[in-house]
Model the fold of this input.
Amino acid sequence: MKSNQTLKILFWHRKSKADSKGFAPIICRISIDGKDAEFSTSQKVHISEWNINSKKVIGSSHSKKINSALNHIESSLEINFTVLKTRFDNVTPIMLKNVFQNFPMENDKNELEQETPQLLELTNIHINDFAELVEKKLRSKETLKQWKATKKKIVEFLKFEFKANDIELAAIEYSFAQKFYKFLAVKRVPTLKDPAAMKQIKNLKQILNIAEANLWIAKNPIQKFKCGSEDPEINPLEIFEVERLWRKNISVERIAKVRDAFIFQCFTGFAYQDIYNLSKDHIVYVGPQNEPWLVKERGKTKVTEMVPILPIVAELIEKYKNDKYCKVYNRLIPVNSNFRYNTYLKELSDICNIGKPLNSHLARHPFADMMLNVLIFPLEDVSKMLGHKNIRTTQRYARVKKSRIGKKMNEARSILFDDNGELKMSLR
Done:
């Protein structure tokens, strides 16, 4: 049966979503027999350049281009509507909208409506989805905290730059990333360092990639924004500083336990969340000598990290084997909450006159430095012990020092030259 329904298409300017420069998105409203559906056209124009009567753009250098895009949307909707009427007795606005946007027209039970979320709504969707993966232990709790921190910074930026609680995805353009970076690195209190600010842009880019994948936007507007930055130079603790921490007689029990946990990290390279969950089950005996190793899937990357248990680590495990907390919770070493741990580490730094702030993450750096520059392990081995996915990450932890180059050069010198500095005959 042929449908006698009629279609009305209206373009209107959503001025309530105007940005600080007065640009607002153009919305398309589909009406069929008194029922409506709306979607963003991915076009936006200044409020002074929209003609309410003609529903067209006027007085803009982009008028022709934008009006042409609106005409194309209108003709495409009319064609799709005509086709749908030949197939269905009753065509709804949602059916037409979904067909136009290449969404499934309907499911087995109900018509499928794809509402386009705004930026913070999409961010919440992503965070909720990520939280479900965390519950299944497929993602890290620490990474979830980072996504929540990104949402907080987006909220701050929207209020600062646009005086708004949210923003249409269609209203986001390349300059959004530029302004977001400037807000984080220059205007925000406190400001973020360049790598941290770039990390937030990278997260925003990932959220907009989700929008593009779901066809809520035609293309990620900030995809070409480069998020690279120079890696900050992190000076790890020197061996003598680690030794100073280890040999310091500390009478305050809570500080002594934090010192031991930090030393444990320095000689295993394990991150905070990984030593927090370490148990006897993670001790594996390897090789014909039955040497004890710590083997654990790293919480953040899901890469297996494996480290031989060095004597100082074995001493700490033995020290706390009868500790009440360790026995109750099946832990190798007692570790505070991340906040308390880092707070007490600052006290430890003062007590031991280290001269630089300590934190739980810093402990991975002296381990990497020792493995690479003192024990001359290959970078690939250090990467495996740290549980990194690629060597590029490891290179930020362990910089090749002159001492390593000197040791290697001395080895090379003994191979190439004799005691008198002459090139060995066997090499000529």
